[in-house]
Specification:
The chain has 272 residues and is an alpha/beta fold. It has one domain: Metallo-dependent phosphatases (Purple Acid Phosphatase, chain A, domain 2), CATH 3.60.21.10. It contains six helices and 13 strands. Helix 5 runs parallel beside helix 6. The longest helix is centred in the first third of the chain and has 14 residues. 47% of the residues are buried. Bound molecules: fe (ii) ion (2 copies).
């Protein structure tokens, strides 16, 4: 069995320290094979906030795969935003904006969707590049393992039910067609601070399309909540079975506890 913890939107600089301690405890107890962090590690991309995020990640002592979020791009230092939007993230969190993790049969790829600017008044929106999607699809194709193929982005690539404008990263439709043909098994994302998992059909090469699982994570430890408690996703995959459990923390509680759990099975057309 492969166990992945999917945490997101930590927003160091605006965290509940009790949630931070509870999350570290929960992850140490559940001992995932990999901790995926889908962006917004900081609130304002300040050095002190990156330092706090780095210390937290180090304290977990687990393999990590991290992508940046829009809050990890410094908006308050305009030259920095455009000259090196991910400079601090690259120096202090991860030296690679498109990391790939392989272990056993598993392959997990990250793609950055946060940008210095996008063609929209709201620069917090994201964009996924066609070249990045092709690079991930090629990595999936070359991967010899029979295990799951997983993509991590900060901004969702498929609409999140209940999110106000159902916005997805720009160019998502094109990227999803490429990833559908590459038979991606699982899409992990954050940004909207809501948790949910579902089977979605991607436009792939097959007549019926390819069904993959999409999982959104709530904000793991920040006080920037949108009507949902802090939480993260615990994902167990064994052969053709996948379980996505939401782990939830309430301010009046001590430990993270089990929340909604969804079960998926893989068949000829993908995951349902
Ligand atoms: Fe966020
Ligand atoms: Fe975000």
């Amino acid at each position: 069995m492969t166990r992945i913890a999917h945490i997101s939107d930590l927003h160091f600089g605006r965290v509940d320290e009790r949630a931070v301690a509870a999350l570290a405890d929960d992850l140490r107890t559940l001992a995932p094979d990999l901790v995926v962090v889908s962006g917004d590690l900081t609130q304002r991309a300040r050095r002190t906030q990156f330092r706090e995020a780095r210390a937290f990640l180090d304290s977990l002592e687990r393999p990590l795969l991290v992508v940046p979020g829009n809050h990890d791009v410094p908006w308050h230092i305009l030259p920095g935003r455009f000259l090196g939007p991910h400079g601090r993230f690259l120096r202090m969190i991860s030296p690679d904006l498109g990391p790939i993790h392989r272990s056993g049969g598993l392959i997990v790829a990250g793609l950055p969707t946060s940008r210095a600017a996008v063609a929209h008044w709201n620069w917090s929106l994201g964009r996924v590049s066609t070249s990045g999607a092709k690079r991930v699809a090629e990595a999936f194709r070359l991967h010899a393992g029979a295990g799951p193929r997983i993509l991590v982005t900060h901004h969702p690539l498929v609409p999140v039910s209940g999110w106000k404008d159902r916005h997805v990263a720009f160019n998502a439709k094109r990227a999803l067609a490429i990833l559908g043909r590459a038979r991606v098994d699982l899409l992990l994302a954050g940004h909207v601070h809501l948790s949910q998992s579902a089977s979605v059909v991607l436009p792939g090469g097959d007549p019926g399309g390819w069904h993959c699982v999409t999982a959104q994570a709530a904000s793991a430890v920040s006080t920037r909540l949108r009507g949902e408690p802090n939480g993260y996703n615990l994902i167990d995959i064994e052969g053709a079975a996948m379980v996505v459990q939401t782990r939830v923390w309430e301010p009046d509680g001590v430990d993270f506890r089990e929340g909604d759990t969804n079960h998926f099975k893989r068949g000829a057309e993908g995951w349902r």
